[in-house]
Design goal:
The chain has two helices and 14 strands, in the order H-E-E-E-E-E-E-E-E-E-E-E-E-E-E-H. Helix content is about 20%, strand content about 40%. Strand 2 and strand 3 form a beta hairpin.
Length: about 240
Amino acid sequence: MDNRSRVVFSVIMVMACMGMGAEAQNSTSNTTSSVNISSTNCGTTQFCAAQPAGCNPSVSGSCFFVSTSVISGQNFNFQLQGQSSGYVAVGLSRNITTGQNDSVYVCANINNNVNFSSNLYNNGVLTPTNTLPSNLMNGSVSGQTIQCIFSATVPNATSTKSSSTSFFISIYNGTVTNGSLGSPKAIFTSTAVVDLSNPNATATNSLNSAASTATLGGPTFGLQRTLSQALLILLGGLVFIML
């Protein structure tokens, strides 16, 4: 095989590999769920927090999302979605240091069914409790995505808060081992207290991860496409030189 043939063969192989990689990258499982969680009413009838910022839970992809809408007083409806093979959870804390007797509502994947529980989170440990009235209304597991809609009577915030419904809010995920919940991993924790009853309230992720400002599938895919195009141009140049 002469040099020209080798270059042409290399170009063909690289393009074939790129095509296979793109197919694998874009392939997603076709999930169906009876739970309809959406960001449509954010800012109008419900408060919302999400990671990445502004992601839409109704669109396939990685989106950690929680919304709250007030029923009356301390009674709220919650929508929660996240990705985990174990559990996702939303936590309410009275102070900026989370994990100090916080209220945490957990939606766990137990044999592909949602198992819901209310817990106290203290020193890295979740302890189920019946002191936090709550009720699972609907839930589903589809692959790594866990969704649940539940109602809960949130505890009163301390007197230092501007509202009895103002908390630091967190989104967690974690593992489940033999039915036991592992320590929560924070995906989102608000930088300040937010009033769960105020649809216009905003929450910024204090974790400041790079993903918090990313659009789903945006920067990563764009970089991959740019590198792919550059590689094709380089190979094209090599072919031209060899001709």
